[in-house]
Structures are given as structure tokens and as C-alpha cells.
Amino acid sequence: MAATRNVMRAIRVFEFGGPEVLKLQSDVVIPDPKGNQVLIKVHACGVNPVETYIRSGSYARKPALPYTPGTDVAGVIEGVGEHVTAFKKGDRVFTTGTVSGGYAEYTLAAADRVFPLSDKLDFRQGAAIGIPYCTAYRALFQKGRAKAGESVLVHGASGGVGIAACQIARACGLKVLGTAGTEEGMNLILRNGAHQAFNHREANYIDKIKECTGMEGVDIIIEMLSNVNLAADLQLLARAGRVMVVGCRGPVEINPRDTMSKELSIIGVSLFLATEEERQECAAALLDGIAAGWLKPSVGSEYPLERVVKAHEDIINSSGARGKMVLLP
């Protein structure tokens, strides 16, 4: 065993339900890396909205109980399986997936879901890359077919996926509009690639966006809260526009006729359905972005492991996102 002690603190979920089902245990056995696995000492772990849906039992994908949540980890390699040659003990890394769960002091990950963490980024930023940036890239390019010169509206741009979408779209030559719910959020997205920002709490913000686009509409909308915004999104799209459904918290009523008049598309985005080839394409694009300097995650709220219940409450009920939420074990 590479670690100096054989037990760790980790969050365990024994039943699906509210945030209170997240239990901190201090006697969880540290797993051994086998084959193509690596063991990572976790310095930071990203908290994503999808983890609250999985925990509640309402998501299509349900892990076997009990489980430890967490996909996006940044830390230091503690040990490697016998077939791993790309990493060694002491390497700084980030993950786009874990085997044993990231809300813990140590986590196992498959080596092909682990990437070197550039010295340009700290561990908290490393933990903010995985799901947000891969989701944004998939929504924009793999599913949204975005092209340089097109316009994109990131509807709810101040959270992890939103900031990622603004940075990627700007770097790839799109005109970027974003919405946020606070002045602080609007300033944040302007600093992270948006050409213009709108406050989605203002009664007439939809009219302001229409005005800004010269009444032509936007080509793509990245939608974080489709159960609230989808009907309005259809009014904002240009001809052959597409709305990418990244987040949703319930049903919504729309008039399908609105899609016919301009031949609009409503496209669902699920990172879990990405093929191995798509995963590798995304990872390559992100590593290029880190090297070029435009991929720079904005970290928001930070919580120690024992405050994970509060983190899950806040990510769903916050008055306005401001960067990526992270746990610090």
C-alpha cells in the first residue's frame, strides 16, 4: 500500500434522498490501484449539479449503493497499478472520472481518465475542469455543431459549465452572450469570454437580448435551466438555431409550432453518452486550452468534506452561481 495509513475519510451514500443522506465516514479503507488504475491523494474535488440528481435517485443513471460521489478530482498520484506507465507517484493530475468516488481523501481512477495538471493551474482549478468543460465542449461542438462566426447565448453562464462555455466559445471565434442573476455574476462572465452580459432576473432581459442581436436571434443557446427557459429560448433563436439542453429540474410546456417557423432544434446533452473517441477529442481540446492559457477555471465556493451537505444544498438553491464549487478534503 502506497499510502501511509490504510483508512481515510470519505462521503458515503447508503440510500437515495436529500442532502442529509451524504454521510462522512472516517474508517473507509483506502483502495489499492490495480492494472491500469492510479490512486490519487485528493487535494480538491468539484461539486456538480448532476451529483445532486444522482444522490436524490431521480437521475437516469443510478450507482449501486453504497457509493461515494465525485468525478472531478485534482491531486497527486499516490500509487499506480502494474500496467500504468504514463504516471508515477508525486505527479500532479486532474481527472474526468473516478472509480471509487472523489468526495474522499483518496480516490482510484482509470489512467485514461487522468491527465497531467499544468503548473499554470492550482488544485482547486484542476477540480473545476472535468464535467464542466467536457459538458460545455460537447454541447457546443459535438452536439451543437458550433462554427466560428456564429453567436451563442449561455443561459446561466456564471456557474461551472457556463464559465467553461464562455471561455471555449470565445476562444473558438464565436460571439458570446451570457446571462447571470447578479451584478457579480455578470462581471464574472464578462471577464471570462462573454462579449455581453444580461441579468436574467430583470423582467425585460429577453427584449434586451433580442435588441442586441438586431432581432436576428442567436444561433445556439446553451441552456442550464430548461424547465424555466425553454419556451423563451425558442423566441431567441435565429433560423436553424439550436438550443442545447444541459440542465433541467422538471417539466416545461412549449409550443412545438415555435420550432417549425424557423426549423429550430432542441438537443439534449449527456456527457455520460460520449464515446471513447469523443472523450479523447474533448480531453485533447482542453489540454490545448490549458497550454494556450484560455482555459482558466473560475473557482467559487469552497467547502471542507464535513460540509458536503451544505454544498449540495447551496448548488441547487444559491441565489446566483459564481464560478465552480469545490470540496477540499
Automatic annotation (TrEMBL):
Signal peptide residues on this chain, from the entry's feature table: none
Enoyl reductase (ER) domain segment(s): 17-327
GO molecular function terms listed in the Swiss-Prot or TrEMBL record: mRNA 3'-UTR binding; NADPH binding; quinone reductase (NADPH) activity; zinc ion binding
UniProt-listed PROSITE patterns: QOR_ZETA_CRYSTAL
PANTHER family: QUINONE OXIDOREDUCTASE
Family, per entry: Belongs to the zinc-containing alcohol dehydrogenase family. Quinone oxidoreductase subfamily.
Name used for this protein in its record: Crystallin, zeta (Quinone reductase)
Organismal lineage: Eukaryota, Metazoa, Chordata, Craniata, Vertebrata
Gene: CRYZ
